[in-house]
Amino acid sequence: MKRLLLPLLAITLAFAPARGQDITGDWYGTLEIGPQKLALVFHISENEGRYATVMDSPDQHAEGLETSSTVFDGTTLTVRAAALGMTYEGAFAADTLKGTFRQGGLALPLTFTRHKAERARPQSPHGKEVAFDTPAAGITLAETLTLPAGEGPFPAVVLVTGSGAQNRDEELLGHKPFLVLADWLTRNGIAVLRYDDRGTAASEGDYASATLQDFASDAASARRWLAAQPETAATGIIGHSEGGIIAYMLAGGGEAPDFIVSMAGPAVKGTEFMREQRHLITERMGLPESAFRQNEQMVEYMIEVTDRYPYDYVETHLDSLAATVLPAFMRNDTLAVNQIKTGLLQSAVPEMVSLRRYDPAADLACITCPVLALVGEKDVQVPPSVVELPLREGINPAADLTVKVYPDLNHLFQHAGTGLPAEYGEIEETLSPEVLADIAAWIKQVAE
Predict the structure, then answer these.
(1) Which CATH number does 130-269+358-446 carry?
(2) Would the pLDDT of 369 be above 70?
(3) Global confidence as pTM
(4) What number is the average pLDDT over the span 184-210?
(5) Strand pairing of 14-15 and 50-57?
(6) Are 42 and 112 in contact (CB under 8 A)?
């Protein structure tokens, strides 16, 4: 659910005059786009009087972004990406570059230094871990089981990650939410099993071809394995985002867990919560409604195309399909074409197709186990509007439902400013202590 500000570019080296000072090396800056902060890194090199710049955007998991030209005259650095209409021009003094970043009509101040600011991660848990392999659908998933001190059996949970290939810690932007959660629960008397997604890290299988139903099958296999262990008693599921949907699927299915915790799990059809997500992000970024409507027309057409054709077809016919999505006046815009191609490929991935099509209504109507549903008030990816009311109206009345909306928390359950994804990596907190405490207390209550 993340997009790059700057896509990959083709590198072109430019001649530069003799220099009086050394501009080469690594430069670190933070671009402020309204409420968002985006770290940027310039790697500047020189070879026989020619300069080259390669960029990183760590907050967007983007490395090796190449620029089209770099010029340094001894006092001023100019870096251009012609295909994007992007330019940075900064005055060089000692260990500082102070200048202006320009792209798409924006002109923003941007200062680089040679000092890399390390982000603190105060929640750094420690715990006793034991590795287990779990067969699921003919593959082996690599897992970690943490057990509390003392005599069991203990209430136990399986942690299920959100969308995208993720490891057992649900690692993202320097944070490891599931490692923090597992540590906290284990210290509070709850056994925890977490696993690498199929085809990810140490797990076998092919992630790219898997659907939402495949991931639900993996989670069900993990819970069956956990429930068979002599150290465990009542066993449940804790799912985050897409994992929260999977928790609903399992609870409404034939082998229901004893309880579930859905962290930011939408309770409406995939197309509905995704549209709300796009609208809210556009609004929170301060963009006009007209920008959302224009973007939505293209998104809806991409969805129509990728619902009709499988991934292999989309990949093979990418150029022609992209041309049909874009208005005629944008078809020579390299940046727009590349963005549409990326969007088409992402939309065609089997996981995304199955996620768009899934409607939780039937599963919610069959749930009878205790349910704890949590969501952050500032969550722009799965806002409270697609969780709280739909869940209260759609779940089986026999279910023991608890819903809690946390003020100031985002999709990762961090205390946030805007809630936009660009903030995730800037925030030192990994998981709100209140959320950790609430989950542990609720599990111990319902598992008695």
Answers:
(1) 3.40.50.1820
(2) yes
(3) 0.74
(4) 93
(5) antiparallel
(6) yes
